[in-house]
Amino acid sequence: MRLNYSIEACASIFEATIIGSSSESITHIYFDSRKIQQANGALFFALSGHSRSGNEFIENAYQQGIRFFVIAKNASSKFHPDALYFQVEEPLTALQQLATHHRKQYTYPVVAITGSVGKTTFKEWIFHCISDKFKVVRSPKSFNSQIGVALSLLEMHENASIAFIEAGISKPGEMKILRDMIQPDFGIFTAFGKAHRENFADNEEHLLEKWTLFRECKLAFIPHTFADLENRLPGNFQVCESYENHHFPIGYSGMLGVLKTFLAYLQFESHQILERINSLPTLALRMEVFEGVNGNTIINDTYNLDFDALSEALIYQRQLAPTKKRIVVIGLSEKHAHERLEIEKLITSFNPDEFHFIPEGKSIPWENFHNAVVLVKAHRDRAFEHEVARGKALKHRTIVEINLSAIKHNVSFYQSRIPKEVKILAMVKASSYGSGADKVAPFLQQSGIRNFGVAFADEGVELRKAGIGISSSIVVMNPDPEHSDLIIEYRLEPAIYSFEQLDEFITALIHKQISAYPIHLKFDTGMHRLGFAPSDKERILAIINSQPEVKIQGIYSHLADADNPIHSEFTQKQLTSFESIVSYFRTNSSDSFLAHILNSEGSLRYPESCYDMIRLGISMYGYTENNQLKASLQGSVSWYSSISQIKAVPKGDFIGYGISYQAIEDMTIAIIPVGYADGFRRSLSNGKGSVFIHGIKCPVVGRVCMDMIMVDISSVDAKINDSVEIIGQNQPMEVFAKSMETIPYEVMTGLSKRMHRVYVEE
Ligand SMILES: *Cc1c(COP(=O)(O)O)cnc(C)c1O
């Protein structure tokens, strides 16, 4: 503020009586004694607010060096002999008179901005767009009230070439006062929402009141949504076509349209207009949107909690989630506790599904929010950033995407190929071959699968905890003897492969006085891994027949090379051996059990040996060695990352550890945050492995690091954050596995746990 008014001039503007004398002039004003910084030349307006009388602060201001005061006639102030007092009817009116007088000193255009939301945003936008061509005066912050407008006008100075003044009202009659002060040449109407309407009879009254501002304007710019005003209200309008710009939410198209039209009016060329609008800081919206925990979307707008910004945020929230649940979270600071009711009213008018005031010292209950759009607003001094950060989904840039629909398709495909009565046991060991058993197994259960296989007891416990109920059987293929208690507690079914283990398990059951506990007998028919020998069958049966603690729930074996037709003779021998075991128990045991020997590959090659159940593993996830089968299965795992950084590497420079790669030409490389710790093996260094960016193959250059790789993107037009495919359309699982000289099983189970798993269902 750079004023220069003599005492006499002020007295005449205020129509005041002066007490005291001075030859100094007034250069700036204050009305809040807490904000006094420069007392020299300052005029203090003793405004009376809702809860305080200005007089209380006069003394305080005097102590801080203020010597000029505007006070109410009836004020019972003590008059200091070295101070000067303007006595007026109403100090606020005096302030507005000064503003009115000041505004009249300038002939450059004054643009008034009103609307129930978006005023501050629009003012910042216009400043961004024109400040290189115009010397702009604009309202500080969101100063748009009776006092704020006066202060804004007092900012006008002779070096400016245009002024933008925000005007906001909350009661009928206020806008006329604002208009008389502003005397706008042009008007901008941003939008009309629900904010600040409680004191008005209806929309029409509120609109008419706002309109008062534009009555005497040369031209008012209004969004297309108010086109019908043209016939209803007096004045000169320019109805502005809406303008959609992909940087902004669709709800901003009205305001953007006004901006575009106004810039054209200011004689900006259309290419300049586009360029400027495209470079608008979306940060001006202050709202940050990101993915939260539990499928929430979070709108973070914890910078301030003024009403304008709040209603803007509420509108934005509604646009972002027309169908999703809306939750509003407010961090009110103690200092503003009195605003609570008003804030509540505003929020309620938007009908959110829930809203929460978070008291000081309490946390946002993120755990209770699911699949909602959560708007968080708070006063700055609540320092809510940390609270909001807790709700943010922690995300590694590199993700493993699991397509559940593909898994379902593959299961259905198998069901259509095997006899109707044959069951499917889903192998979900090693966390569902790396795809996340806690998500995949419940999905399979939903699709009707009732038999699951895991390797170890703790994997079985994880399944039960993830919601695989007692009506589903979970077979633990390699149980440790010391896990018997855990197995029993969680009702898991152990595969028994030796006499010691059988003895141990029966002992555990005796201690717990449990009988007829289901167990599975595992036979080694030629692979020579875990399992009883076929010749053990009589002795096993004798033990089981004499021990009521256990019953045979299943008998199984495993094929050593089901994939390979050239070893079908060997496989046939295994099948024959299994058949003699099964028929022995069928004849001699009273337990009715499920027999099974076939895995994914075996099920289609030897369908006559399905017995009661097949154990589906790799093919369920969509992978097979069988070329004819490939077309019928759908791969379920994709692996993506994104570019962290792009670099130009001059010819002759080296890349990575061990300076093992030298650029033969000038090249461009991208750094991708995936490394051998994630399962992208070190053997893929220096061209052995590749990724795909925009569908183009980009070979690894230099050595694979623990958490990063560098790839050659010289032939790709790529930007930072662009998506990188490691496994997907362009580089299928089988191809990637080959590049690491391994099989899909190992690739899948080697995908590190630290990578986020994302589940998609089409
Ligand atoms: C892993 C496993 C399977 C599944 O094999 P796939 O080749 O993945 O179908 C079947 N049975 C046993 C005993 C297993 O350990």
Automatic annotation (TrEMBL):
SUPFAM superfamilies: Alanine racemase C-terminal domain-like, MurD-like peptide ligases, catalytic domain, MurD-like peptide ligases, peptide-binding domain, MurE/MurF N-terminal domain, PLP-binding barrel. It catalyses: L-alanine = D-alanine. Substrate binds at residues 529, 706. The keyword tRNA-binding does not apply. The modification N6-(pyridoxal phosphate)lysine is found at residue 429. It is an enzyme of class 5 (isomerase). Pathway: Amino-acid biosynthesis; D-alanine biosynthesis; D-alanine from L-alanine: step 1/1. It holds the Pfam family Mur_ligase. GO terms for biological process: D-alanine biosynthetic process. Its cofactor is pyridoxal 5'-phosphate. GO terms for cellular component: cytosol. The keyword Ribonucleoprotein does not apply. GO terms for molecular function: acid-amino acid ligase activity; alanine racemase activity; ATP binding; pyridoxal phosphate binding. Residues 636-760 form the Alanine racemase C-terminal domain. Keywords: Isomerase, Ligase, Pyridoxal phosphate. Its EC number is 5.1.1.1. The active site is at residues 429, 657. Belongs to the alanine racemase family. NCBIfam families: alr (TIGR00492). Catalyzes the interconversion of L-alanine and D-alanine. May also act on other amino acids. This is Alanine racemase.
